[in-house]
Amino acid sequence: MDIHPIHTEEAYEGALERVASLMDAKPDTPEFDELEILSVLIENYEAKHYQIDAPDPIEAIKFRMEQEGLRQKDMVSIFGNKSRVSEILNRKRKLTLEMIRNLHEKLNIPFENLMGDYQIQR
Predict the structure, then answer these.
(1) Do 90 and 121 form a contact (C-beta atoms < 8 A)?
(2) What span, in angstroms and rounded, lies between the C-alpha atoms of 62 and 110?
(3) CA spacing 20 to 30 A to 89: which of 4, 6, 41, 50?
């Protein structure tokens, strides 16, 4: 086992290939230990080079709607009325504190995903 920190894209690709070859390693073997170590190194490299920003609140709502198979009409109880649902999802109006609470309680969307700033379309 010759493991080094991952500093380049080439080293990253090589580590991914090696991990793929080790996926069937049995616990308590040198191969399994190598798999665990490489996984940590890969996660570290990806956190530095492939950082994914959290979605803005509207994208978080749309994502949860898609996950739950919800349509705009299903959101009326959260936003108040059909036109307000449309205004929110089309970025014409900002979320209110009450809407954020409702989204958190009814759709289990984390507060931190709902509190971010986003641009209103004029």
Answers:
(1) yes
(2) 14
(3) 50
80-91 pLDDT, tens per residue?
999 999 999 999
Give the burial string for 79-98 (b: 16+ CB within 10 Å, else e): beeeebbebbbeeebebeee
Give me Rg for the CA atoms of the chain.
22
Cα–Cα distance, 9 to 52 (Å, whole number) = 17
Give the DSSP letter of residue 8: S
Q: What is the pLDDT of residues 32-51, one digit of tens each?
A: 999 999 999 999 999 999 88
Task: List the one residue out of 109, 72, 107 whose CA is nearest residue 87.
Answer: 72
CB 95 within 8 A of CB 80: no
Q: What is the DSSP letter of 56?
A: P
Does the predicted model carry a pTM greater than 0.90?
no
- Residue 8's Cβ-side half-sphere holds a number of Cα atoms within 13 Å equal to 4
The beta-carbon contacts of 15-24 under 8 Å, at least 24 apart in sequence, are 15/41, 15/42, 15/45, 16/42
Residue 67 corresponds to which amino acid? Q
